[in-house]
Structure formats: C-alpha cells, structure tokens
Design brief:
Blueprint lengths: L1 H15 L6 H4 L11 E4 L1 H7 L3 H10 L7 E7 L2 E6 L1 H15 L13 E5 L13 H17 L3 E8 L4 H12 L17 H18 L2 H15 L2 H25 L5 E4 L4 H13 L3 E4 L2 E4 L8 E4 L7 H15 L4 E4 L6 H13 L8 E3 L5 E5 L2 E4 L10 H19 L5 H19 L9 E2 L2 H4 L7 H18 L15 H11 L1 H11 L3 H20 L7 H24 L9
Parallel strand pairs: 4-5, 4-10, 5-6, 10-11, 12-14
Antiparallel strand pairs: 1-3, 2-3, 7-8, 8-9, 12-13
C-alpha cells in the first residue's frame, strides 16, 4: 500500500503547501467500509497549520484529487476518507505483485546497513533442547526478514565450548573409563556420542558430591586445556566436532544456517587483552578478591575475573563484541537470548560504553520469553517430571509422527514417500510456527496437539490455505482459463484482500525494524482468514471466463504472498496436503 499512501501524502502536502514527513504512515483503513477504503487523520497537521483538524480535512476534500484509482474524497470530522475505484486499484495492485516476481515483498529500507544477528548459541557436548527452539528460530526468522528488507546480514552462532565444565568431561575420559571408554568405540563412530558425553557429565557431577577432589581434578584438566596440553586439546576438539555434527543435522531440518560459527574458545587471547584494557582504562576494581567493573547504582558490578583468575562468559562476551565489530563493522548487532539474561547484557553493553566504544549503542538484546511445557497439570519451564531437559529432536519426531497419522487418515491413497514428505513439512512447520505467532517477549505454552491443528492460528492452517490456492490453480489449468488483469475484482472482500496483499512489503520492513517475526506471522494469519471468508462467499472458477481469470490472478497473488511469507518464517509452503 505504500505506493498509494505516499501518493496521497504528497498530494496533501502540495494542497496545503506544507512539507509533511511520515504522513503516509498515518493513513489506514477506516473502522468501517461504509466510511471509505482509506483514511487520513488530520490531527498531526493541526499544529503546523494552526487550524482545527476538521477544517484541514474540509480544505483537502475540496481540492482536486486527480488519481484514476480514487473515486471520491469525503470528510468525517477530522478524517479525510477515500473511496477507491476498485477496478483501477485491483489492476494496479496485481501489477505490483507481478513486478515483484519471486522477490515479492523485498525492500530497500535496510540498504547499505549491516546487521549481525547472534542466535541459537548452544553448549557443545549437550543436545539442542526445546528451550533452544526460541533463540534458534526467532533468530533465523530475524535474519531472513532483515535480508528481505535489504540489509546485509551476518548470522552468528556463538557456541559455548569453553569453561570449567569441559574440564569435567576431560576428567571423565580417564576417571570413568570403566563406565564408558570414550576411545572404544571412538566418539566419531557412535550412534549418539552427545548422549554418551552427557551421561558421563551427569555421572561426574553425582560422584563429585561424594568426592570433592573430583572438582579439583576437573579444574586441573581445564587448566591443561587453557595451557594447550596436546592430549586435552585433542580430546576437546573431538567433543566439539561430534557436537557440531549433531547440531547441524537438526539445523538443516529446521532450515537454519549460519554465516559464522564461533566458539567462546576463540576468544582466549582476546579475553586477556580485555582484562588489560579494563585495567588501563582504570575501571577494573577488586572486590573480595575478584575483579569487577562498577557501572551504576541501578546495575550491579559486572564480575570480570574470579578469585582463582578464571574468566567468565561475560568476559568472553566483551571480547567477542570487540572482535566481531573488527571483523564485520556493523550498524546493528542483535543478541537473540532469553529475557532472563537482561541484566547480563545491560552490564556488557554498559562496560563497552565505559571503554568508549561508540558502537556499543548499536548493540541490542532481542530478548524473548520462556517456553513452558505442561508437567503434572501445570505449565513449567522446559522440564519433564524427572527434571530432564526435553530434547528438541524428540519434539520434532513426535510432531512429525502425529502429523503423519493425520495425513494418512485424510489421504489414504498417498504413497509412503508422499506421506513422509508432507508429514515432515507439517510436523516441523507446526513446531516452528508455534514459536513465531506470538510477540517474542511473551512466554509460550507448548501444546503439541493444538499446534498441529488444521484450524486456528497454527502452521498447518496456513499450509492448508496455501494448498487450497494451489488446488484452485490446478483445477483451472485444464479449463484453459487465462489470468486476468483484475478489472472485475470489485467485490468488497476482494478489495480487502488486495489491500492486505499490498501491505506485505511494509510488514516485512516493520518486522525487520522491530526484530519481531510475529508481525509477519499475524499478518499471514489475517491474510488466510480473509481469504477463507471470501472463498466461502464467492466462486473463483465460474461460467464467466473473464471474471474467473481475474479471480485466478488474485489467487496467484495470494499464493505468492503466503508462500513467500512462510518461507521467511522457515515453514515450507505445500502444494498438496
């Protein structure tokens, strides 16, 4: 709609002899179609013109509006309402979608700007769990949206691959060889090496409760790793390698990819340099034997180095921010991390500002709420009855299996390969979309039965709507109907759909600006709902070949818009279901 609202804004400015900025942003749909099709509130013009908004609306309505797509201009108090010539508007709208082609929705609001998006960020030697879904998929969707809006995007996976916890795993290698000899069979040939590593890690923690000397052994091993001991480094590299391989299988399934995957281990030297930099700046203080940086009365001091000299992940975040800005000088850097880390990022950003980095103001914590599972009749954060983490892979498998049961029940004639392909897209898409439909700051209740529903605000509902578009177009193919130019799209419901379609690029730009994928997911739900209302009232294919052609062109525009939007959210649009 931007093309049309900007024309209205420019004409209003010319009539009033006034430079009006962002006036196009104020134009929206009236509360009722009886009032018109577009409405311009005149309140923001009252100050510069020193006139009442209603008087400004009257002045504008009396002027010439020589646009072929505008039928009438009327006032309703302080509002200027426009009624559109539906045939002209429909033709122009469909032309705009057609011109967009496969890149329909792409814009240039981010042209010349570089954005770094950090997301997922799991710890090696552990599985991706259900709580990783939010960071992973919200981050990937943000990266997709930012690229679509014209930004240069660097997608970044900040791996947790360093710290005393890895000293425990290295200690397990020899200490618990009787339980599991990690060299026989080697990690690299095991079916699930990450589970084996995790089992040893749990065993070590339980044993250390009875034998505190084990913790000292773990610290010794981590010191060896930090010092570059060949055996420690070789074992750590093997742990890291099998973990990354496991992550990648799930990332591929989710449609997730990264431009850079960098572990905390990469910042070893940079952390020491950061400590020296804090000292040289005179802001590093000692508190109870530890090194801290004081920020303000509202923010507690940030712990930089513990009494034993060990650095923390906060120190690594400081070092990583500096190095990544050196590698990719950015205009914006998003940390897609849960809201519980809010204080941590306020500290990190605050320390970087104290060090004089002007780009610290470009760092953003794109926080999100927790994912809750139903446990014993209550919604709780990502844990099962036994306190074990729910694995993301298990959730995907369960979702795909449930989808398979539904697909087979509805389509008994499909081949096994067809069922497998559709079920994977529906099951994985349902899980992904469930994380996208609400504002990211809200907590999410994960209910697998609801998110797999073909009704309501779900991924399968949107996929099914896309399938309906494809089905209509397939039915039209043997009838030799030709897509029309839209001149006969004059029904009120058709105008609603056309306006919704035209807002697609604006929604993408706004979702990219706000780092908020739910802007797009809600838009797609509204688009699907409006089409299904329309479809219940109007036949697309009828005895009127010309009208059918125009309505087929509308369906093609809808299919392109919904399909493109689903892909941006990492949900596969299907042709059959």
């Amino acid at each position: 709609m931007r093309l049309f609202t900007e024309q209205i804004a420019q004409r209003a400015g010319a009539i009033l002899d006034l430079e009006v900025s962002h006036l196009a942003d104020a134009i929206s749909d009236p509360p009722s179609q009886e009032l018109g099709d577009l409405s311009l509130p005149c309140f923001q013009l009252a100050g510069p013109l020193k006139k009442a908004p209603a008087a400004i609306a009257t002045q504008l309505a009396a002027a010439e509006w020589d646009f072929p797509w505008i039928e009438t201009v009327e006032t309703a108090g302080p509002y200027l309402n426009f009624r559109l010539r539906r045939d002209h508007f429909a033709r122009l709208a469909l032309e705009r979608v057609e011109q967009g082609g496969e890149q329909w929705g792409a814009g240039q609001s981010g042209a010349g700007k570089r954005v770094l998006v950090e997301y997922s960020s799991p710890n090696i030697a552990k599985h991706l769990a259900i709580h990783h879904l939010r960071s992973t998929m919200l981050g990937q969707a943000m990266a997709n949206l930012l690229r679509c809006a014209g930004h240069e995007v660097i997608s970044w996976n900040h791996l947790g691959d360093w710290g005393t916890g890895f000293g425990k795993l290295l200690a397990c290698w020899d200490q618990f060889r009787d339980s599991d000899n990690l060299d026989d069979p080697p990690l690299e040939v095991r079916d699930d090496p990450v589970s084996d590593l995790n089992a040893l890690y749990v065993q070590f923690n339980l044993a250390s409760e009875a034998d505190p000397q084990l913790d000292s052994l773990a610290r010794d091993w981590f010191r060896k790793l930090e010092a570059g001991d060949p055996q420690a480094v070789e074992r750590w590299q093997r742990i890291r390698s099998v973990s990354l391989e496991k992550f990648d299988t799930i990332y591929q399934r989710l449609g997730v990819h990264f431009d850079e995957t960098v572990g905390e281990s990469h910042y070893q030297d940079a952390m020491l340099q950061m400590v020296d930099q804090l000292k040289d700046a005179g802001i590093l203080e000692q508190s109870d034997g530890a090194d801290v940086v004081r920020l303000s009365e509202e923010i507690p001091p940030m712990l930089i180095r513990k009494q034993d000299g060990a650095t923390l992940y906060g120190t690594r975040d400081l070092a990583s921010a500096v190095l990544r800005h050196q590698m990719f000088p950015f205009d914006r850097c998003l940390y897609v991390v849960d809201a519980g880390q809010g204080l941590h990022f306020r500290q990190v950003f605050g320390v970087l500002k104290l060090l004089g980095y002007s780009w610290a103001d470009q760092l953003e914590h794109a926080e999100f709420g927790v994912m809750r599972l139903q446990v014993d009749g209550a919604w709780k954060k990502g844990k099962t009855r036994g306190g074990q983490v729910v694995l993301l892979e298990d959730v995907l498998e369960q979702s795909v299996q449930l989808a398979s049961d539904k697909v087979r029940a509805k389509n008994p004639d499909l081949s096994d390969d067809q069922v497998s392909q559709i079920s994977e897209a529906v099951g994985v898409g349902a899980v992904i979309f469930s994380d996208m439909k609400s504002a990211r700051r809200k907590d999410v209740n994960f209910d697998l039965d609801k998110i797999l529903s073909f009704d309501g605000e779900t991924g399968p509902y949107l996929q099914y709507t896309h399938v309906r578009f494809c089905s209509i177009l397939r039915k039209a193919s043997p009838l030799n109907l030709v897509s029309g130019d839209g001149n006969r799209l004059v029904e009120a419901e058709e105008l609603v759909l056309l306006k919704r379609i035209l807002r697609f690029p604006e929604v993408i730009a706004r979702a990219a600006r706000d780092a908020e994928p739910s802007h797009l997911s809600q838009y797609l739900l509204e688009l699907a709902g409006e089409f299904n209302t329309y479809y219940a009232q109007h036949r697309v294919i009828s005895d009127d070949a010309q009208l059918s052609g125009d309505r087929l062109a509308l369906v093609e525009a809808l299919q392109r818009t919904l399909g493109r939007g689903l892909k941006l959210l990492c949900v596969e649009p299907l042709e059959r279901m």
